[in-house]
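May I ask for a sample protein chain and its fold as tokens?
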Amino acid sequence: MKKRWQKALFRRCLPALAILLLAFLAVVLNGAEKTALVNRAGQTFETGIVTEILQDNVQEDGTRVGQQTVVVRMTSGEKKEEALTTTSSTGYLFGAACTKGMHVIVMQSVAGDSTITSIYSQDRTGVLLIFAALYLLALCVVGGKKGIRGAAGLLFTFAAIIFYYLPLIYLGRSPFWVAVGICAVTTVVTLYLIGGPTQKTLAATLGTLAGVMIAGIAASAFSAASGITGWNVSDIESLLTLWETNDIQVGGLLFSGLLISSLGAVMDVAMSISSAMQELTIQNPAITRRELWEAGMRVGRDMMGTDSNTLILAFAGGSVSMLVLDYAYDLPLLQVLNSNNIGIAVMQGLSGSFGVVLSVPATVLLAGWIYCRKTAR
């Protein structure tokens, strides 16, 4: 009885201590002062509601040219509750097609008695929060306790990227190894929440880490063979500013992002195989290690048929705009295949898929040893 009580206490204390340690680390990492890259003195982004359209820019054919002049009642900031006359451009990146009653984000600069404002965008904060809440609700309702734990794991992953990954990168740490650490921690926490401190969780965690590392190795090999590096990304000129001012290792960001993007798919494969193999050992305790390996590989091969496409389709979907432009301009095939953007997309898709596919035998081998470690059959 005493031993059981001590074991239960240990299981509760260990997560509590881990949470305290992570919270302390987050406070320390996010306390670093950032280098000011642009002068934002007096500039803020505030919320407001459009109350009147003084001058619209809709043409007879329905298009918009120029800018709107509108009255906005501010709902935050120094000018809260004041009605300000401002403008909204017709650009696709900034501004908004304002209508009466629309909630907007106002870019506001206050200097003494002078106030300069313009509409930055429609206020989408509420919509984003509502859709995120609806997704988490659906996850919890459909998944029950597992769904609630999965939602907690998702929130932890998001927090890990915001409060640990970004600050560490900003402080000049290696993006690749920071990504490895983040993947390891989020994998342990997520799978622990879903499966608890079990053999299944251990096997899935080790299989996930193996798959993510395989994806990183494949990407490195592709980079060495093709000459594509993190310095070939489209926004390298903006990133060079960070390199010069903060010594951020921008060249490693491409591979760092690849590891993180492949984590979800690899984790799915590893947990599914680990769970299936554990179920086999429960239903047939006399199963031999070789039989378990063979059964695990059959399950894994069925998963490969769909999961091998997951990351390739994801990266292809993210490159649709670029592919449409290439097709419309009828660019030569050699030019398209050898462009940096296409090369990076192919490297990300294939390297991530290498991780997904090869995580299958890795997880099967690891799970077989864990579940049948007492015998050499």
Notes: The mean pLDDT is 83. The chain has eleven helices and five strands. The longest strand covers residues 43-55. Residues 127-371 form one domain.
